[in-house]
Design goal:
The chain has 361 residues and is α/β, with parallel strands linked by helices. The protein has two domains: 2-170 and 313-349, Rossmann fold; 171-303, Glycogen Phosphorylase B (Rossmann fold, 3-Layer(aba) Sandwich), CATH 3.40.50. 33% of the residues lie in helices and 22% in strands. The strands form four sheets. It has a seven-stranded mixed sheet, with helices on both faces. A six-stranded parallel sheet has the order 3-2-1-6-7-8, with helices on both faces. A two-stranded antiparallel ribbon has the order 4-5. Helix 1 (12-25) packs across helix 11 (315-324) and helix 3 (80-89) packs across helix 4. The longest helix is centred in the first third of the chain and has 14 residues, at 12-25. The N and C termini lie far apart (44 Å).
């Protein structure tokens, strides 16, 4: 079976999820995977050995500044005519299945092609009844039309009584080990790092390891800036007792798997992150703040919230086996099987009749 697998490359979380899928799909030699990434220039991808001679397109992305989506920049810098050209020129004739992890070129090229398609990703969970915030008409249209797929496997931290799956986590790189209690992993790529470092220095009892775009490796008192490195990031995540991040899906999924204390700041104007923050609060998984300042860090560090550890199954392996089997098992059955294997919480039924978790600390 020849498969074209498109991946939204703007966020490193999509790449982490794709690496987990690539490892599991490689267990089936009869599946020939061609990988296509979009959303950043080819030279800005790193650690891409898992994907062979991958294809790259411009795609679409969002532009932000100081923690807020910039609508006008997003519109004018996406070059819509180039995107339309890429969609029209993408040849799908040799592929038996088209998969999109919220990648718009493959998703739109699939339409009217007559080929079977499958969406895999967190964004497709919003096709179901999950917590939503910031869902104005424009945001709703963007979410639905960015990379539309008629059949999909949505991913979320909890099922909310919907046929969605647990997160895909790079299990091989999410193993618990030695934890440094005062180590804080910081990943706030949409914030102004230069403004955050003086704030972190006020908390001298903690060591902050800050990953951000356009920084170099540097150690200054208790602040340690780090350029992007997959191995370095995973190692610091495993050691950290605390994780300070935006409300993206994949990093928080890994932090939950590892049992970290999490503080999350959603990107303003971005419906997915606002909705993720709402879900984190509803489920009691993290401390959510609208801004990162001395007050919120004082509170977070002083109250020392109990970390929640959720042991998700190997969802990537299950999906790879499902694809190898021809995607024939009904998605609700696949969903139920994987949630039965998830450990770390017991469910209770709310007055609305929707199950919600009671976490085992």
């Amino acid at each position: 079976m020849n498969i074209l697998f498109g991946v939204q490359g703007t966020g490193n979380g999509h790449l982490s999820r794709a690496r987990a899928m690539a490892s599991c799909l490689s267990q089936y030699p009869e599946l020939d995977i061609t990988w296509l990434f979009s959303g950043r220039p080819r030279e800005n991808y790193f650690d891409m050995n898992d994907f062979g001679d991958f294809e790259c397109r411009q795609g679409l992305t969002f532009f932000s500044r100081n923690g807020r989506i910039q609508i006008l920049q997003t519109i004018f810098r996406n070059r819509p005519f180039k995107f339309i050209k890429d969609v029209k020129q993408l040849d799908l004739s040799c592929f038996d299945l088209i998969i999109s992890d919220y990648e718009p070129v493959t998703a739109w090229a699939l339409r009217n092609s007559g080929k079977p398609g499958l969406g895999i990703g967190h964004q497709y969970a919003f096709n179901h009844r999950v917590p939503v915030k910031g869902n104005d008409p424009v945001s709703h249209a963007i979410m639905k039309l960015f990379a539309p797929m008629s059949r999909s496997l949505g991913l979320h931290w909890f099922h909310f009584d919907q046929p969605i799956l647990p997160p895909i986590i790079d299990v091989a790189h999410c193993t618990a080990g030695r934890v440094v209690p005062n180590k804080v992993l910081v990943y706030l790529p949409f914030e102004n790092t230069a403004e955050l470092l003086p704030l972190f220095k006020k908390f001298s009892a903690f060591e902050f390891y800050v990953y951000a775009p356009q920084v170099t490796d540097n150690d200054d008192d208790n602040c340690h800036t780090r350029s992007f490195s997959r191995s370095g990031f995973k190692a610091d995540l495993a050691e950290a007792g605390w994780v300070l991040c935006n409300s993206g899906f994949e990093l928080i999924s890994e932090a939950l798997q590892l049992g970290k204390r999490i503080m999350s700041k959603p990107l303003k104007g971005q419906m997915e992150q606002l909705s993720n923050a709402a879900a984190l609060e509803q489920l009691g998984l993290a401390t959510v703040e609208a801004s990162i300042d001395q007050r919120c860090l004082d509170f977070w560090f002083s109250c020392e919230p109990d970390p929640v550890s959720i042991r998700y199954p190997d969802v990537a392996a299950a999906i790879a086996a499902w694809i190898h089997g021809g995607c024939r098992q009904p998605i609700p059955e696949l969903s139920a099987e994987l949630w039965r294997q998830t450990q770390g919480f017991e469910e209770r039924t709310t007055q609305t009749g929707i199950s919600s978790p009671r976490f085992i600390l």
